[in-house]
Specification:
This protein is α+β, with helices and mostly antiparallel strands. It is built from two helices and eleven strands; from the N terminus they run ααβββββββββββ.
């Protein structure tokens, strides 16, 4: 093998090695600090296009008249490091994850930075997984589409379980 070929192979190996190091650093940075969230511009209500309803998954329960008349007002953590903690649900949405910007901060190894979102939708709550690594489970079943959360049904994110209650 010629000296020039050997030099080119060494430089190519060095470039691939540095690309690998930068990929690891980028992954660690995004895992620790999260991705920048892009805010969508607000549009006046008269000019806004109709909003599509979220697709409800197969595990959707049809609310009874008692459930629909009194929607959940609290989130109660039933398992995990913060067991027993009760949170009053906000009017519109609650974000869940490791990020300090989340409404419910869960700090464990199995929770993503921006893991899931609870949305108030038509007098009920819908949970949406935000492409988390370990998933979001409703009553033991992993959800992949926004799914309605019935009252007193366990939701598991990482090592933390919670329920929505009145």
């Amino acid at each position: 093998m010629g000296g020039l070929t050997l030099l080119i192979l060494r430089l190519a190996f060095l470039a691939v090695l540095w690309a690998f190091v930068f990929a690891i650093v980028y992954t660690l940075r995004s895992d620790l600090f999260g991705h920048r969230v892009r805010r969508m511009p607000t549009v006046a209500a008269s000019a806004a296009a109709p909003v599509a309803q979220p697709v409800l998954g197969a595990r959707t329960a049809v609310p009874t008249s008692a459930q629909s008349s009194t929607a959940a007002r609290r989130l109660v953590i039933t398992g995990g490091a913060k067991e027993g903690l009760e949170i009053d649900l906000p009017a519109e949405q609650l974000t869940i994850g490791r990020s300090s910007e989340s409404g419910l901060v869960i700090r464990d190894d199995y929770t993503s930075t921006h893991h899931a979102r609870l949305l108030n939708w038509n007098d009920g709550w819908v949970i949406q997984d935000l492409d988390s690594t370990n998933g979001t489970y409703l009553d033991g079943v992993r959800i992949i589409v926004p799914t309605q959360v019935p009252l007193n049904t366990p939701v598991k994110i990482g090592t933390t379980s919670f329920e929505l209650r009145r």
